[in-house]
Protein backbone atom coordinates (compact mmCIF):
# COMPACT_ATOMS: atom_id res chain seq x y z
CA UNK A 1 0.00 0.00 0.00
CA UNK A 2 1.54 3.29 -1.12
CA UNK A 3 0.63 6.19 1.14
CA UNK A 4 2.81 8.87 -0.44
CA UNK A 5 3.93 8.38 -4.02
CA UNK A 6 6.62 10.95 -4.83
CA UNK A 7 7.03 10.21 -8.50
CA UNK A 8 7.76 13.19 -10.74
CA UNK A 9 4.12 14.22 -11.28
CA UNK A 10 3.19 13.76 -7.64
CA UNK A 11 6.21 15.79 -6.52
CA UNK A 12 5.01 18.62 -8.74
CA UNK A 13 1.50 18.34 -7.30
CA UNK A 14 2.82 18.39 -3.73
CA UNK A 15 5.04 21.38 -4.49
CA UNK A 16 2.18 23.28 -6.17
CA UNK A 17 -0.06 22.54 -3.20
CA UNK A 18 2.57 23.70 -0.70
CA UNK A 19 3.22 26.80 -2.80
CA UNK A 20 -0.49 27.63 -2.94
CA UNK A 21 -0.86 27.17 0.82
CA UNK A 22 2.23 29.33 1.44
CA UNK A 23 0.96 32.14 -0.77
CA UNK A 24 -2.51 31.95 0.79
CA UNK A 25 -0.95 32.07 4.25
CA UNK A 26 1.15 35.10 3.28
CA UNK A 27 -1.98 36.90 2.05
CA UNK A 28 -3.71 36.08 5.35
CA UNK A 29 -0.75 37.23 7.49
CA UNK A 30 -0.51 40.55 5.65
CA UNK A 31 -4.28 41.04 5.75
CA UNK A 32 -4.58 40.35 9.48
CA UNK A 33 -1.56 42.57 10.16
CA UNK A 34 -3.08 45.48 8.23
CA UNK A 35 -6.44 44.93 9.90
CA UNK A 36 -4.86 44.92 13.37
CA UNK A 37 -2.54 47.87 12.72
CA UNK A 38 -5.44 49.98 11.46
CA UNK A 39 -6.78 50.14 15.03
CA UNK A 40 -3.64 52.07 16.04
CA UNK A 41 -4.16 54.79 13.42
CA UNK A 42 -7.50 56.39 14.33
CA UNK A 43 -8.94 58.05 11.24
CA UNK A 44 -12.62 57.28 11.77
CA UNK A 45 -14.67 57.27 14.98
CA UNK A 46 -15.75 53.69 14.35
CA UNK A 47 -12.47 51.74 14.57
CA UNK A 48 -14.12 48.45 13.53
CA UNK A 49 -15.56 49.99 10.36
CA UNK A 50 -12.20 51.60 9.62
CA UNK A 51 -10.39 48.26 9.99
CA UNK A 52 -12.90 46.50 7.73
CA UNK A 53 -12.62 49.23 5.08
CA UNK A 54 -8.83 49.08 5.13
CA UNK A 55 -8.92 45.30 4.86
CA UNK A 56 -11.44 45.47 2.01
CA UNK A 57 -9.23 47.90 0.07
CA UNK A 58 -5.98 46.06 0.81
CA UNK A 59 -7.26 42.58 -0.07
CA UNK A 60 -7.32 43.59 -3.73
CA UNK A 61 -3.57 44.18 -4.10
CA UNK A 62 -2.74 41.33 -1.71
CA UNK A 63 -4.69 38.74 -3.71
CA UNK A 64 -3.41 40.24 -7.00
CA UNK A 65 0.16 39.87 -5.70
CA UNK A 66 -0.59 36.31 -4.56
CA UNK A 67 -1.92 35.43 -8.00
CA UNK A 68 1.13 36.97 -9.62
CA UNK A 69 3.38 34.81 -7.42
CA UNK A 70 1.33 31.71 -8.12
CA UNK A 71 1.06 32.12 -11.88
CA UNK A 72 4.71 33.10 -12.29
CA UNK A 73 5.66 29.43 -12.72
CA UNK A 74 2.30 27.74 -13.14
CA UNK A 75 -0.55 28.50 -15.53
CA UNK A 76 -2.67 25.43 -14.92
CA UNK A 77 -5.17 26.44 -12.23
CA UNK A 78 -8.29 28.40 -13.11
CA UNK A 79 -8.62 31.73 -11.31
CA UNK A 80 -11.93 30.74 -9.74
CA UNK A 81 -10.32 27.70 -8.14
CA UNK A 82 -7.30 29.71 -6.98
CA UNK A 83 -9.55 32.37 -5.44
CA UNK A 84 -11.60 29.72 -3.64
CA UNK A 85 -8.43 28.08 -2.32
CA UNK A 86 -6.97 31.41 -1.14
CA UNK A 87 -10.26 32.24 0.59
CA UNK A 88 -10.47 28.75 2.10
CA UNK A 89 -6.96 29.07 3.52
CA UNK A 90 -7.83 32.47 4.95
CA UNK A 91 -11.08 31.19 6.48
CA UNK A 92 -9.30 28.19 8.02
CA UNK A 93 -6.60 30.41 9.53
CA UNK A 94 -9.28 32.78 10.80
CA UNK A 95 -11.01 29.84 12.50
CA UNK A 96 -7.76 28.54 14.00
CA UNK A 97 -6.07 31.82 14.95
CA UNK A 98 -8.00 35.06 14.39
CA UNK A 99 -11.23 34.16 16.12
CA UNK A 100 -9.79 32.55 19.27
CA UNK A 101 -6.99 35.11 19.69
CA UNK A 102 -8.61 38.38 18.56
CA UNK A 103 -12.39 38.01 18.36
CA UNK A 104 -13.36 35.86 21.35
CA UNK A 105 -11.24 37.81 23.90
CA UNK A 106 -13.03 40.99 22.78
CA UNK A 107 -16.51 39.57 23.32
CA UNK A 108 -17.12 38.09 19.86
CA UNK A 109 -17.80 34.52 18.86
CA UNK A 110 -17.18 32.17 15.98
CA UNK A 111 -20.79 32.62 14.95
CA UNK A 112 -20.65 36.41 14.96
CA UNK A 113 -17.41 36.36 12.96
CA UNK A 114 -18.50 33.89 10.30
CA UNK A 115 -22.01 35.29 9.73
CA UNK A 116 -20.73 38.87 9.44
CA UNK A 117 -21.45 40.27 5.98
CA UNK A 118 -17.98 41.87 5.90
CA UNK A 119 -16.37 38.42 6.11
CA UNK A 120 -18.34 37.18 3.11
CA UNK A 121 -17.80 40.37 1.11
CA UNK A 122 -14.05 39.98 1.56
CA UNK A 123 -14.36 36.30 0.61
CA UNK A 124 -16.17 37.28 -2.58
CA UNK A 125 -13.44 39.84 -3.20
CA UNK A 126 -10.76 37.12 -2.90
CA UNK A 127 -12.54 35.06 -5.54
CA UNK A 128 -13.28 37.93 -7.93
CA UNK A 129 -9.77 39.38 -7.81
CA UNK A 130 -8.21 35.96 -8.49
CA UNK A 131 -10.68 35.36 -11.31
CA UNK A 132 -9.96 38.76 -12.88
CA UNK A 133 -6.21 38.22 -12.59
CA UNK A 134 -6.53 34.85 -14.29
CA UNK A 135 -8.74 36.22 -17.04
CA UNK A 136 -6.58 39.24 -17.92
CA UNK A 137 -3.08 38.00 -17.11
CA UNK A 138 -3.23 34.26 -17.77
CA UNK A 139 -6.16 33.35 -19.98
CA UNK A 140 -5.81 36.17 -22.51
CA UNK A 141 -2.02 35.77 -22.73
CA UNK A 142 -2.38 32.03 -23.27
CA UNK A 143 -4.84 32.63 -26.11
CA UNK A 144 -2.45 35.12 -27.75
CA UNK A 145 0.47 32.66 -27.76
From TrEMBL:
The keyword Transmembrane applies. The keyword Transmembrane applies. It comes from Flagellimonas meridianipacifica. InterPro entries: Uncharacterised_YnzE. The chain crosses the membrane at residues 21-43, 49-67, 79-105, 117-136. This is Uncharacterized protein. It comes from the Bacteria. Keywords: Membrane, Transmembrane, Transmembrane helix.
Amino acid sequence: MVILDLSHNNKRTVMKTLRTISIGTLIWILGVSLYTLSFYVPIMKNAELQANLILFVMVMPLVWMGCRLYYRDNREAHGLLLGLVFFGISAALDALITVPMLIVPNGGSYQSFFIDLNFWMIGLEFILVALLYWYFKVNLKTKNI
